[in-house]
């Protein structure tokens, strides 16, 4: 947009010379959001010591650091999200109609009957505000379960606040502006609660965490309304923003064609997460790499004279 490619009215209002009027630039912002539910671990096997809040934690961390340095093994080999599940909100085995009445049903936003709309994952440590917040308890051991909204209906925007490139853009993700997205996350949280209260996790939850304001160890009796409040309070980005220069025809708000070329600007291609027509139902790095590989092939073909487009 700073270079004059974007919605003409927005660019003109900021005094930017319009090179190409492409209304889709900066629109259709999609992202995966996540809701985290924390638990206290009575086995003290969790990795809360990675951010030490007690002398014992510090000793464990030093031991883990040495173990990793000397053997390449131990707790520091974790990728944190150690187990994942991809599921559907309309799976009757997981959400039986007897417990989930029709008014709680989630609209099908998936790409097909075998595609998921919820991801669950577990981390062997609970964290707060993306890990930047205060640890959840001094010397405590915690873990977390997480539910991810994979197919959001809501979409947001990116706009400029001025033509000065040093000014931050205005990012309005519109998270949870669509009630279907909220319903999806409520089902996800209910499932997390059920997983947590099924062994082996059930036996390791420490009742000492029952009344901790940032842990939510028992949600089975919580109403949907209260779960909605919890979802809205705890929702965070999973850092997967996409689709602000989506691949689609110009009349559908598209910015690039199927060959990654920006509509109306010869020889300018985009190869990153912004060209996703919509967000994928999984994490974004692998598809971005695939786009990069494809872009290299397209450009090689184009400059090589074969299949010049
Ligand atoms: C904290 C975090 C954790 C994540 N974890 C995962 C994960 O576990 N798995 C997964 O699949 N995905 C994960 N993602 C998402 C994934 O990293 C992104 O979807 C992916 O990197 C997007 O690729 P991209 O090429 O679109 O953008 P980027 O990777 O952001 O690349 C953009 C590049 O453009 C450069 N750049 C910006 N402005 C300019 C400019 N004016 N001139 C020149 N260069 C410029 C930047 O320096 C950067 O190198 C995570 C993201 C974050 C932030």
TrEMBL record:
Q: What domain of life? A: Eukaryota
Q: Which family does it belong to?
A: Belongs to the GMC oxidoreductase family.
- According to the entry, every stretch annotated as the Glucose-methanol-choline oxidoreductase C-terminal domain falls at 152-292
Q: Which InterPro entries match?
A: FAD/NAD-bd_sf, GMC_OxRdtase, GMC_OxRtase_C
Q: Which GO terms describe its molecular function?
A: flavin adenine dinucleotide binding; oxidoreductase activity, acting on CH-OH group of donors
Please state what the protein is called. Glucose-methanol-choline oxidoreductase C-terminal domain-containing protein
Required cofactor names = FAD
């Amino acid at each position: 947009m700073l270079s004059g490619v974007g919605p003409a009215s927005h660019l003109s209002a900021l005094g930017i010379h319009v090179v190409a009027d492409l209304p889709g630039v900066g629109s259709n912002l999609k992202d995966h959001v996540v809701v985290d539910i924390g638990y206290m671990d009575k086995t003290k096997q969790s990795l809360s010591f990675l951010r030490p809040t007690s002398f014992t934690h510090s000793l464990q961390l030093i031991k883990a650091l040495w173990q990793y340095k000397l053997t390449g093994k131990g707790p520091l080999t974790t990728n944190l999200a150690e187990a994942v599940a991809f599921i559907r909100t309309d799976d009757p085995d997981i959400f039986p109609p007897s417990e989930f009445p029709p008014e709680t049903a989630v609209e099908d936003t998936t790409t097909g009957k075998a595609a998921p709309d919820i991801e669950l994952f577990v981390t062997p440590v609970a964290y707060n505000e993306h890990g930047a917040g205060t640890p959840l308890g001094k010397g405590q051991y915690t873990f977390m379960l997480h539910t991810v909204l994979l197919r959001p209906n809501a979409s947001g925007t990116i706009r400029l606040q001025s033509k000065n490139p040093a000014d931050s853009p205005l990012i309005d993700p519109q998270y949870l502006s669509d009630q279907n997205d909220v319903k999806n996350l409520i089902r996800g949280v209910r499932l997390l609660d059920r997983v947590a209260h099924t062994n082996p996790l059930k036996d390791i939850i420490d009742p000492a965490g029952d009344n901790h304001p940032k842990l939510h160890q028992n949600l089975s009796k919580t109403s949907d309304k209260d779960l909605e409040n919890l979802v809205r309070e705890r929702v965070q980005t999973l850092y997967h923003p996409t689709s602000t220069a989506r691949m689609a025809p110009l009349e559908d708000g598209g910015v690039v064609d199927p060959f990654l070329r920006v509509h109306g600007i010869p020889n300018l291609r985009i190869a990153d997460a912004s060209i996703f027509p919509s967000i994928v139902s999984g994490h974004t790095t692998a598809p971005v790499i695939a786009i990069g590989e494809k872009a290299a092939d397209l450009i090689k073909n184009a400059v090589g004279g074969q299949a010049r487009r």
